[in-house]
Amino acid sequence: MDRVPIVLVVATMDTKADEAAYMRACLNEAGVNVLLMDVGIIGKSPIDVEISQDDVVRATGHELADVHDLKHEGRASRIMIAGATQLAQQLHREGRVDAIIGLGGSVGTDICTAVMRSFPIGFPKVMISTLASHDVRPFVGTKDILMFPTICDLNGINRILRKILKNAALAAVGMARQEFRDRDDRTPLVFIGTLGTSEPSALRIKQAVEAKGREAIIFHTTGVGGQAMEEMIGEGQADIVVEVSAQELVSHLLGGDYDAGPDRLSAALKRGVPTLLVPGCTDFVVSGPIGITQKRFPNRQYHRHNAAVTAVRTLHQETEMVARAMAKLCNEATGPRAVAVPLGGFSGFDRPGGPLHDPEAPEIMAEVFRKALGPETPLHVSPYHINEPEFGDLLIDIVTSWMTN
After folding, report:
1. Among residues 98, 94, 127, which one has the least CA distance to residue 35?
2. Coil, strand or helix: which one is 381?
């Protein structure tokens, strides 16, 4: 980079001014310029800022008095988020910001990370938060936000916070100084969704498409992975989509932990992107620790994957439900698509001798597809297990036929 980087620091200055001032000093010491943005809802900032809370509110067409009159921190936060996002994106379009740092407790984290999620993947985003050691999925969403736990409260500078804030500042500086360019934005992209229990076929597809000069990106279908995948497909970034795991659909239908929302598997099919659907990982629904799982899904067949994850064997009627949902998506699609069913089993758990093996379920799934799929969707039924090389080769043949055409 041939200029001095600029870092935008966002905080509720009425409560986090000391920390923001220290952060500015750390960033200046590291040789970058700083813009302070005040997203405080109540009091005025005791330090000078480049973007005031009045600027933020007026960007939405309101006045600060309007925010105060709401007397509701949630609704007030929505206004601050809208204004801060608008101003931050203007800086981004004008090339006047190279990284963003947020400082906050619960309200500040909500506001700052909402602004960060408006930035593209790859743009440096650092959130210093008292909530960073909690479940941060609501804050991070589908973006690459680096969460820094504060360890102690953000309530004045102390020996712990000096270290935390300086490390976070240096992390942002390091990222801001690097000007990253993709090697070739025009390289066709293949998106692949999978879990570890269906990964062998996904890896075979990845190797095959890369050998033909394409780029393959694998997404972990744990909920947020599928959401990111759908979002990027909706932006037009995928040329071919291969769903080796349909666990997120199972979780949505059955109340599992890997639910990616009601629109999962739909973006590519609606856009006409060539899409291959495999009912991988539909032999189970993901739940939490075994004790909780046994209460949520009583009298079932369980596999304790680890201390935090339990796989619950799906019932035959649930298998039929999943197949009908997948068939409906295909029947409403506009572009090339296909379904491939491995009769030998749907995951590493669903194999002879495996903890959740049910040899009848794949044929039940296949029979629903035979009846429910329209003639525009080719159905490939294979005798092999999902992780066997022969099934992976079938998927490769389907994908490469689309690449050729």
Report:
1. 98
2. strand
SS3 assignment for 306-333: CCCCEEEECCHHHHHHHHHHHHHHHHCC
**How many whole angstroms separate alpha carbon 319 and alpha carbon 323?**
6
Query: What is residue 354's predicted lDDT score, i.e. its pLDDT?
Result: 96
Q: Which of 84, 101, 77 is nearest to 154 (CA)?
A: 101
User: Do the Cβ atoms of 223 and 260 come closer than 8 Å?
Assistant: yes
Q: Do the first three CATH levels of 6-176 and 189-404 match, i.e. the same topology?
A: yes
Q: 3.40.50.300, 3.30.200.20, 3.40.50.12020, 3.40.50.80: which CATH number matches 6-176?
A: 3.40.50.12020
d(CA 283, CA 299): 16
Regions of the chain short of the pLDDT cut 70: 1, 180-185, 405
Predicted local distance difference test score (pLDDT) of residue 74? 87
Provide the pairing of β-strand 284-287 with 302-304.
Answer: unpaired
Class of domain 189-404: alpha beta
Report the SS3 class of residue 141: coil
Cα 186 to Cα 73, 182, 183, 207, distances in angstroms: 45, 10, 9, 19
Whether 315 and 349 have beta carbons less than 8 Å apart is answered as no
Tokens of 154: 């953000």
**Domain chopping of the chain, boundaries:** 6-176, 189-404
pTM over 0.70: yes
Neighbours of 207 (CB within 10 A): 12
Can you tell me the distance from the alpha carbon of 266 to that of 400, in angstroms, rounded to the nearest whole number?
Answer: 22
- Cα–Cα dist 321/251, whole Å: 12
